[in-house]
Write a structure and sequence with these properties.
Protein name: MYOF protein
Structural class: alpha+beta
Strand content: 25-35%
Number of strands: 9
Number of domains: 2
Subcellular location: Membrane
Strand order of the largest sheet: 6-8-7
Oligomer: single chain
Mean pLDDT: 78
InterPro entries: Ferlin
Low-confidence stretches: 1-5
GO cellular component, one term: membrane
Largest sheet: 3 strands, antiparallel
Radius of gyration: 23 Å
Distance between the termini: 48 Å
GO biological process, one term: membrane fusion
Order of helices and strands: EEHEEHEEEEEH
Length: about 230
Amino acid sequence: PKSGGTPISTPPGFFSPQLPPVCDEIQLAILSGTKVLGTATLHLSQISSAGAELEEGTPGFLPCFGPSFLPFYGPRPDPARTTSTDIGVAYRGRVLLELSTHMGTPDGRQRDTIAPEDIAQVQRHLPRHRFGLCGVFYSATMVPAGPQLLRFELSLGNYGDRGDATCKPAPSVTPHGCPLFDGNRYHYLPWYGDKPVAAVTSSWEDAGHRWDALNLLRAICRRLVSTRG
């Protein structure tokens, strides 16, 4: 994984699932030897449809996904914590993934590698767009008790992650604060009238053409449902 949303190049893979499936998800993992760096999950119920079971009903479709970027997340130790058992979740990278399903017997194709020059050529032509995220924290209640200082972090991918040295520093974390007892059962951070603000600026490829098409299809579906009703 690289900063700026550089996709991870992976060769195409082929496997023979049994239909109907005995599970509802496909789990993908990024490995370094035997160590799992990050995982992502595709739910079959979200990328396929059995169709209407009534006569003249809506036909279904086999599992399909993408081509689209799929983010991967994995655990990382939090240096702000005092115990090794406390872990956080970090952005590990993303994979440009396309999943298609074909009926029949496997054609015997094997996994092939993607040439580095092909990856570099595609990345040069990816249109990029800047995104910003700003958050205002109004309160932090029912936090765990203890002498350690607490803070909140805002991130977009690996942008804003203080544990990731590949991105420029950003005001993405709140000031450290020690929880105070509320006099009843819980603890809170004493922000009072000074509400902390965190902001992150990031740069990713412009996938607006995919979003526009999806939003248009959803708007058409909503319009047809409301017209039918």
